[in-house]
Amino acid sequence: MKANVIVFPGSNCDRDIKVALEKFQIHTTMVWHQEKVMPNSDLVVLPGGFSYGDYLRCGSMASKSTIMNEVIKHADKGGYLIGICNGFQILTETGLLPGALLRNKKLKFICKYVNLLIENNSTPFTSKYKKNAKIKIPIAHNEGNYFADEKTLYNLQNNEQIVLKYCDENFNINDESNPNGSCLNIAGIINKNKNVIGMMPHPERCVEDILGGTDGSGIFQSLLS
Amino acid sequence: MIEVNLDLAVQHGLTSEEYEKIKILIGRKPNFTELGIFSAMWNEHCSYKSSRVWLGTLPTKNKRVIQGPGENAGVIDIDDDDVAIFKIESHNHPSFIEPYQGAATGVGGILRDVFTMGARPIANLNAIRFGSPDHPKTKHLLNGVVAGIAGYGNCIGVPTVGGEVEFDSCYDGNILVNAMNIGLAKKDKVFYSIASGVGNPVIYVGSKTGRDGIHGASMASQEFDLDSESKKPTVQVGDPFAEKLLLEACLELMQTDTIVSIQDMGAAGLTSSSVEMASKGNIGIELDLNKVPCRETGMTPYEMMLSESQERMLIVLKTGKEKEAEKIFKKWDLDFSVIGILTDSKNLTLKYDNKTVCDIPISALADEAPKYEREWVEIKKPEYSGLEKKLDKINLEQTIKNLLSHPNQADKSWVWEQYDHMVMCDTVEFPGGDAAVIRIHGNNKKAIAASVDCTPRYCNSHPYTGGMQAVCETFRNLCAVGAEPIAITNCLNFGNPEKPEIMGQFVGVIKGMTEACKKLNYPVISGNVSLYNETNGVGINPTPTIGGVGLIKDISKVKNLKFKNKDNNIYVVGKTIGHLEQSVLCYDLLHLKKGPPPSIDLNDELKNGKAIRSLINENLIDSCHDISSGGLILCLLEMSIASQIGFKINTNKKSLDRIKFLFSEDQSRYIVEVNDQNKNSFENVLSDLNVFFENIGKTSEKINIDNDLKFNLQELSKLNKEWFYKYNN
Questions:
Q1: Which residues 324-363 on chain B approach chain A with CB closer than 8 angstroms?
Q2: What is the 3-state secondary structure (H, E, C) of chain A?
Q3: What percent of chain B has pLDDT over 90?
């Protein structure tokens, strides 16, 4: 499998995702945001962290980069595209995924391991997890509060586009287990064609026991299967 | 033209003697720009004029030290041609005036000090101290500082992995924000700031120069008064995005063969960077100020030279390499400008609009900067105050609960969960433990450990013991995770050095640190001094923040403070004497602030630390935590809360003796968890090393002390966790 990781000015989880992808023998190329063409690949990753400092709305500058034309083409052709954290924000800014990511309800950056419920395991990104399984993956964001209007939320549910939800140790999905105020405790969604996923949690941060867990591995193993 | 006279010099923070000395050194009256430059170079912050004499007495060498104090940061050898580069620096004054930007630019500044030397920054740490939680400003300052550290560190993508947070009314008018950074480089790719080669071009890269931060270093060299708020314009504004670009561009440039030397523009900006580089190389430097990229129009030479705009670097390139270097900075959308040249004049020469606006010998600015042997009085260890008598009647159950919910002992996750502590994917131990552990990227076996510590109440009571203790505590924290302590960086925060008693605190701390560093073979390789931390004539507790760094050769052996299993044995390693004065119990909970701090036997410190390391190396213990503020009881409770495994101990002591056993802060001690299988080997190792140890009980489901003090672990965990959330709601 081949992956392209897009590098924007200020990206800072680009190396982390490369290391994780390569751990799963996914051949990875870093692609600079000003490139007009992108090497052929099965997977494109919009990495986490920041882009352009995110002084404007998170992800909005990056969504207008030259390379994004290629990224959109890749997705339109059915190629796999994953946006992690800032990548998720970029995906909503481009319109590849619906909704928006607002500032966390408590207006503070949050970095910690959270419990997630696998709502949908029939996607290319989550097939290795069991449905309704609980996994632990870290989040690290200031703007992860997923928002969409009622109709969009209804459609997301109806089309089984909600992939990950925040929950607690006992699988409860409620305000207490919602770290950032997201609608319906949404942590990750997928497009209708099931080839473009956006998620706030960072799977690349938990693929080794020594770093605190391996629950992120499922994302990469799913892609390989 | 502004007329230069003594009044103006005094307004610039110079004394009349210093102004006279300037006139003699350059043989004439300085012009306005030159006066500004002298004031920037000769202030306390840049010249270390009060502290230099004493800093020179600190040990700075051991086998692993490659670069000690005097560069942007210190360098140590961590094997396999890898080096760790680190330093700690204060940003106290600006953070009090504007907490978010003050703290953010503190992080930005220390990052630049480290990557200037060719290292990729891999870990941020910090020590932040605030006034009493009840003080009307504290909540605002705490929130601003934490958000500022987070805002900068998270955006640039360097994990913030450890630190300290403390509240004490002595910081009501002067908070402390000390930021540390550690970077990683290859031994043959370390860059220094010594300018050389007459004719080599001098390059300005990074952000543009604005009017922010003019006189920042001078402000940091003065006491505060009621008008401090009016100093807001002297606080710099941080741009972590620009710094991220600058970091990547500099590291890219360092892969080419173009750089002679490089220096970041920190305090006193273009002035100190150009003068320091030239001074180290004993060479002259000429700058054309029309070529300085400016953010604002109409900036004067004076403003350009004194601006402390952030995210800028000065580089001396090899002649002819300008184009190659420019290409890299253009790729990263950063300003790149050839602004000058190295000369054989040994002068700092500045041109503006084809006129010479400054021409002064570099040596006058650097070597001839004032150096004072300030008057000082020795501060003797106070007598025992006999306050123990007042402790007989305390309610132990309630006191233990008060201890856990006191802001200084409360769980700090509200703070460190705002910091991205995992980015770069090498953080092995998260904040909240004894020391942060960061894996060396690409090396699956090796890691470095780091810890930032100080106990200011000890330093205030007896500076000599306090200075020694701060060094020892970092040493202990590193040993507790299994690291070999290598070297320290220090951030010395004090009041006004012109007062003999404050200078006496400074001297005492330095002497105590020196003793500890020598005995532990644990030298100082970098640091910074922050004086004049006073408001309306009242100084802070002396606070020598120490950042210690150690090496872990086998990452699989790292230990943390979480109990691992029930029914394991709990041992105290090191002797408990029962010294209560200056303990958290007396100082923070009962407000009994008299008496001496616990004394330290450096032989025991070294011996016990080595013993702990060999126990970890031989896999004979399951968890380990050093006993520090809060004593043995807090140490045990922290191990329990982190693991949700309780303990059942027998002190075999009553009333005051039991209080002493639980709360005393005797030094050089650790609590370790040992399973039955390792019990004999464990005891044999310690006996052979002649280290004192005692078995005090076992891990268990609940918390039980002497069968008469029982606690619900969930309830204690909640008490410990909720203080910060309640306070900041």
A1: 332-333
A2: CEEEEEECCCECCHHHHHHHHHHCCCEEEEEECCCCCCCCCCEEEECCECCHHHCCCCCCCHHHCCHHHHHHHHHHCCCEEEEECHHHHHHHHHCCCCCEEECCCCCCCEEEEEEEEECCCCCCCCCCCCCCCEEEEEEEECCCEEECCHHHHHHHHHCCCEEEEEECCCCCCCCCCCCCCCHHHEEEEECCCCCEEEECCCHHHCCEHHHCECCCHHHHHHHHC
A3: 91
Give the C-alpha separation, B324 to B653, whole Å. 74
Residue % of chain A over a pLDDT of 70? 100
Say if residues B365 and B37 touch (Cβ distance below 8 Å): yes
| Cα(B7)–Cα(B133) distance, integer angstroms | 41
> Is B91 assigned a catalytic role?
yes
Q: How confident is the model at residue B30 (pLDDT cuts 50, 70, 90)?
A: very high
- Cβ-defined contact of B420 to A111 (cutoff 8 Å): yes
Q: For this complex, say whether ipTM is above 0.90.
A: yes
B444 confidence band (pLDDT: 50, 70, 90): confident
Token representation of residue B628: 């520090």
Do A12 and B427 lie within an 8 Å CB cutoff? no
Label residue A95 exposed, middle or buried (CB < 10 Å: 0-12, 13-18, 19+).
exposed
Q: What is the pTM of this model?
A: 0.96
pLDDT in tens, B521-572: 999 999 999 999 999 888 999 999 999 999 999 999 999 999 999 999 999 9
Q: Max alpha carbon distance in chain B (Å)?
A: 86
| Strands B538-539 and B534-535, sheet pairing | antiparallel
Residue B562 makes CB contacts below 8 A (sequence gap 6+) with B623, B639, B642, B643, B645
Non-local CB neighbours of B53 within 8 Å, separated by 6+ positions: B371, B372, B373
- Flag whether pLDDT at B226 surpasses 60: no
Q: What average pLDDT does the segment B291-299 reach?
A: 94
What is the rounded distance in angstroms from the CA atom of residue B473 to the CA atom of residue B489?
13
- Quick one: which of B213, B371, B412, B226 has its CA closest to B296? B213
Q: Give the Å distances, CA to CA, from B552 to A170, B548, B623, B686.
A: 37, 13, 16, 21
Burial category of B228 from C-beta neighbours within 10 Å (exposed 0-12, middle 13-18, buried 19 and up):
middle
Structure token pair of residue B22: 């300037």
Phi then psi for residue A32, to 5 deg, are -75, 145
Give SS3 for B677: helix
Q: How many residues does chain A have?
A: 225
Across chain A, which distance is largest between two alpha carbons, in Å?
48
Which among B46, B6, B177 has a CA at the least distance from the CA of B107? B177
B 426-445 residues with CB < 8 A to A? 426-428, 430, 439
Give the N- to C-terminal CA distance of chain B in Å, as an integer: 54
| Length, in residues, of chain B | 729
Alpha-carbon Rg for chain A in angstroms: 16
Domains present along chain A, CATH in parentheses: 2-224 (3.40.50.880)
CA distance B271 to B215: 11
Nearest-angstrom CA–CA distance, B580 and B286: 60
**E-assigned strand segments in B534-659:** 534-535, 538-539, 543-552, 569-573, 623-626, 646-649
B423 vs A13, A110, A112: nearest CB: A13
**Residue B155 is nearest to which of A19, A53, A211, comparing CB atoms?**
A53
Q: Does A78 touch chain B (CB under 8 A)?
A: no
Nearest to B419 among A19, A49, A111 (CB): A111
The Cα-based distances of B182 to B70, B126, B276, B490, B522 in angstroms read 17, 11, 23, 13, 17
Considering only CB atoms, which chain A residues are within 8 Å of B413?
112
Of B2, B77, B70, nearest to B35 by C-alpha is B2
